[in-house]
Amino acid sequence: MTEDLPIGIVGAGPVGLITALGLVRYGVPVVLFEEDDRLSLDTKAGTVLTRTLEVLNRYDALAPVLRAAVRIDEIGDIDRETNLPARSVLTGALTEDTRFPFVINIPQNDIEPALLEALEAKQPGAVRLAHKVIGFEQRDDHVELQVEHGGAVHTERVRYVLACDGGRSQIREELGITVEGHTLADRYSLVDIKADLDVANPRDYPYLAYFGDPSEWMILVRQPHCWRFLFPLPQDRPEPTPEELGAKARRFIGDVDELEVLGRNVYTVHHRVADRWRDGRIFLLGDAAHLITPMWALGLNTGVLDASNLPWRLAWVLRGWASPELLDGYETEQSPVAIQGSGEMAEAARLYMSRQSGEVSAMGDGNWGNAFTRGLLGVSLDVDGNGAWSMVRGGSEPDAVRSGDRAPDLPLLDTGGIVHLHDLCADAFVALYFTDTRRRPALPAQDSPALRHYVVSRWDAPHDSGLRDRALFDPAERVTRRFGVAPDTLVLLRPDGHVAAIEPFDPKAGGNRAAELYERITGQEPPRA
Ligand SMILES: Cc1cc2nc3c(=O)[nH]c(=O)nc-3n(C[C@H](O)[C@H](O)[C@H](O)COP(=O)(O)OP(=O)(O)OC[C@H]3O[C@@H](n4cnc5c(N)ncnc54)[C@H](O)[C@@H]3O)c2cc1C
Q1: Mean pLDDT over all residues of the chain?
Q2: Quick check: helix, strand or coil at residue 14?
Q3: From the alpha carbon of 230, which atom of ligand 1 is closest?
Q4: Lower CB count within 10 Å: N or C terminus of the chain?
């Protein structure tokens, strides 16, 4: 019997842990192998973006992460020489888009325990520390992993393997998957400093501030317990002493009475992507698939987009709600986003920081568009396989939602109270019919757990309409206006909150167009309850 086998995840970094949380959220058992005997002590990633917060919320893992983080509603862009703000991004503009109009700072070595706590609560014992995967063999319906533990090697059988084993992925190597890209000449120095910039030496820097400069740019990150400085270390330059680091910090933040260097790390920085993300039953996710220059927090957060896209697909296939071809969409949709999207955006941001270029094309004049893009809410996926995707949105006001976009996460009201769109579609495709409930639109029966139907209207469903259980009240048409749809429109949402289709809807026609769309996407009719 292979039906009962878990999915094997290799690597308990942030992407492995979030992918595990996703699968467990869909009721899919996992086993997660981590070669080290503890979670990482590496400070590395420090900022988690809005879209990641939404994914963590969908996977019931947000609370422990927020507890350990500081929240930020402003991303600063400061000219180092003049100390003047250039184009700060105010995330408060996102209140018509998300429940989380902010980003957070949390060091990687704090987010991993928070994620583990959430995973342990759901599937105790899922994570096996000090278990190194050293080989694998793919079979027709499962994979056999060779796992080294306590000096001995044993075999573990799993249904699929999700390689979240980081930039040096052994699994990727063994599959013979080529990685293309380059290593930056400069290394990145990351220094944690204790200084009182609140009371003794008050400064008004945003909690996340990018100081651009041709000779020495720097990113200032307020972490829960300290201030973090990230700056490039030119080629062949020796690592600075603590005294030099202190002096450098003072050059940016001005003189302060006490300043203590708590810790420091120097990282070699790469920009590389795998040319294939899948081999049979094995998938690459996170840094194993794409190493992105750490700029604008596009490393881990791009990996979380992978962890948002693959788990629901696997769950659908394992539940028998989709054919295995649904899994192909993972790479088709995510690889352009990582390679051209995040990859190019991060490189452009790096050139802007060192003033080798005057601007980043991802940043426009409007604060809303900038906040939307920087929070990774602008990721629009190629859901139709026609090559249309994007990561950048412009303008000063929210614009109409398009097919492929991540849907706005706004509240509607069912008969029991408030329901947010992302919660509504977290475990099903959801067809929203934007139409006038008073006219008794012909809606398909609510008979599939995989595809749900709801009419959205500012007219509460009359009690004799037969639609009370499928009606969502939209006071003042807040949601209708944010979607920007014409009257009588069908919007189909996927379980990852992306819009699968937007089409006109004839309220008198009957039929089940949403089921046809579902079948086109999943290769199967929606299962009956
Ligand atoms: C200086 C710096 C700053 C950064 N700042 C940010 C930021 O602010 N925001 C952001 O989004 N990103 C940032 N990043 C990038 C971010 O750190 C990475 O993208 C992220 O760690 C990738 O997570 P991952 O889970 O894919 O891989 P990793 O974190 O590398 O985890 C891989 C895990 O797999 C385990 N493993 C490997 N091989 C095996 C095996 N054979 N068997 C079992 N286990 C195995 C490893 O021990 C490790 O625990 C930064 C990076 C650097 C260097």
Answers
A1: 95
A2: helix
A3: 1
A4: N
